Amino acid sequence: VTSAHLGLNTQDPIGMLAKMIPPIREKKDSEALWRGVREDVVDTFGTDNVTRTIADKRLDQGMWGSRTGYAVLGTHLPVLISEGYHKRGVPLLDIVRKATMSPAKIFGLYPRKGTIRVGSDADIVILDLDKEQQVDPARLGSSSDFSIFQGKTLKGWPVMTIVNGRVAAEDGRLAEQKGNGSYLFRHL
Q1: Edge-to-edge strand ranges of the sheet holding 153-163
Q2: How far is CA 36 from CA 15, 88, 143, 154, 179, in A?
Q3: How many domains, the chain?
Q4: Is position 48 annotated as part of the catalytic site?
Q5: For the chain, which has fewer Cβ within 10 Å, the N-terminal or C-terminal residue?
Q6: The CATH number of the domain where 128 resides is what?
Q7: Per-residue pLDDT of the chain (188 residues; tens, 9 = 90+)
């Protein structure tokens, strides 16, 4: 399930900017998804990130002519922490497992990814569980000029991201200008 479907419902004022497939549903539906998270029916969180600008969404072409897609990488964890941990009491370890280990296993990258142990990549996100911040697209480090969560206040934000043992981002700013990624072969 995506953080967009867990964090939004049809009562949110974002409108056509949140056009996606499958579409955002009613509040009762997002609550049912959270119930599935708590009952372990939902075992994986994803983003379905498709970075677009407002112009690229083509909102002027209406419901049938506009495009799907939204940038959500910068709000993925804050939505899960704010909506799951803080508002609904989902255990933090369950959120972490469903956001890291489960996707790594699905993509055939576990145990290189999705866990902290000897032999795994040294990737970790440090969260401030109490940090509250209003979502501002300009502060998300994306080429998108909107966020489907813009204007919402979320509680629980990353304060540091470490990739391959090196600080990649700190306090919302990139620490490195050059990427240090590599292709990962999957074992399915």
Answers
A1: 124-134, 153-163, 166-170, 173-174
A2: 26, 12, 33, 22, 36
A3: 1
A4: yes
A5: C
A6: 3.20.20.140
A7: 999 999 999 999 999 999 999 999 999 999 999 999 999 999 999 998 999 999 999 999 999 999 999 999 999 999 999 999 999 999 999 999 999 999 999 999 999 999 999 999 989 999 999 999 999 999 998 899 999 999 999 999 999 999 888 898 999 888 876 777 788 888 77
Could you give the 3-state DSSP secondary structure of residue 170? strand
Q: Kindly tell me the sign of the dihedral angle through the C-alpha atoms of 57, 62, 68, 73.
A: positive
**Tokens in use for 29?**
């539906």
- Is 19 part of any domain? yes
**Is residue 154 domain-resident?**
yes
